[in-house]
Design a protein that fits this description.
The protein is mainly alpha-helical and 297 residues long. The protein has helices at residues 2-14, 23-38, 46-57, 63-75, 91-122, 128-148, 150-159, 164-173, 176-180, 186-201, 205-224, 228-238, 247-253, 259-274, 283-296; strands spanning 79-81, 87-89, 242-244, 278-280. It contains 15 helices and 4 strands. A hairpin with a 5-residue loop joins strand 1 (79-81) and strand 2 (87-89).
Length: 297
């Protein structure tokens, strides 16, 4: 659980939903960079990267998907390709990632310290040791909330954090989390039930940005990992929606635009089918496709 939450926090900083124009490519590129960052100074083949992603993130991508994203990273000079088709993280990019991680860690410490100071002011009788225990448990609570509930996080992604009532309802549904936390005595156990939801509901502007980023990243992570809870929500939201395939997509499906595009389009359509969407090809598209094939002949 801690490994997944750390991955989500890093994903928050590196993949911005509002900025990306190719989410699948950029998300896979993120995982590639993280593996090469952890192995900085070493050369990794696509097979090594594939194994590294599986081991570190418990995610599986095809060779074609990894090649598409690593080629993008090479074109952006973020990854260096050797003459024998192995890859390493560019030195400047490694420094940038290190700086970003340190910056995000400092931001997180500041946000949690802000919260613990608020709790101390509301409960002046608490000792510093008790506040430290509350902070330790809050981090576990937040991790459980985001990691385990990709579906609810996806809902928040669409609705934002504007509906406090919806957030409060969701937090009350997660009351089981309190039973999984260490026993700290009646006083602290009861105080957690009051103060932990307030971490979400009484957020400063900076904390809301922090939480929104976690929501976005959790959504992306669960979609990529095909979390069943998140998939169930998506099936509910998108069931019956029709996706019309044009001629260019058909070209991709049969491999005329390269194996990378073929793999990517097939994966997207596979997800669309699993989410209850209807894949449609019109007669006009079929006729257009046949005509184009005849021209080639």
């Amino acid at each position: 659980m801690n490994e997944i939450s750390e991955n989500i926090k890093r994903l928050t900083h590196f993949v911005q939903l509002s900025a990306t124009q190719n989410l699948p490519r950029d998300v896979i590129a993120f995982f590639i960079e993280q593996i090469l960052y952890l192995a900085f100074g070493k050369l990794y083949s696509i097979a090594n990267i594939q194994k590294g992603v599986k081991k570190a993130f418990d995610l599986t991508f095809t060779t074609e998907e990894l090649e598409l994203s690593v080629d993008f990273l090479v074109s952006k000079k973020r990854v260096i390709k050797s003459t024998d088709n192995n890859y390493s993280l560019e030195k400047g990019r490694a420094k940038q990632i290190s700086d970003l991680v340190e910056s995000e860690n400092r931001r997180e410490v500041k946000i949690y310290e802000e919260w613990i100071n608020q709790v101390g002011k509301r409960n002046p009788a608490l000792k510093r040791g008790e506040l430290d225990l509350l902070l330790e448990d809050l981090k576990v609570y937040v991790n459980k909330f985001f990691v385990r509930h990709g579906a609810e996080c996806a809902t928040f992604l669409y609705d934002g954090l504007k509906k406090e009532k919806d957030v409060e309802i969701s937090l009350s549904r997660n009351s089981a989390f309190f039973g999984e936390l260490p026993k700290r005595g009646v006083k602290l156990d009861e105080l957690r039930k009051i103060e932990f939801p307030l971490f979400f509901l009484e957020s400063s502007a900076e904390r809301k940005l922090f939480l929104s980023g976690l929501l976005d990243a959790t959504f992306v992570y669960h979609v990529v990992s095909v979390d069943e809870n998140c998939a169930a929500l998506l099936r509910k939201e998108y069931k019956g929606i029709k996706i019309y395939l044009d001629t260019n997509i058909i070209y991709c499906l049969i491999g005329l635009n390269g194996k990378n595009q073929k793999s990517l389009i097939r994966r997207v359509l596979h997800y669309a089918h699993n989410f209850g969407m209807k894949i449609v090809v019109t007669q006009r598209t079929i006729d257009e496709f046949r005509k184009s094939i005849k021209l080639v002949e």
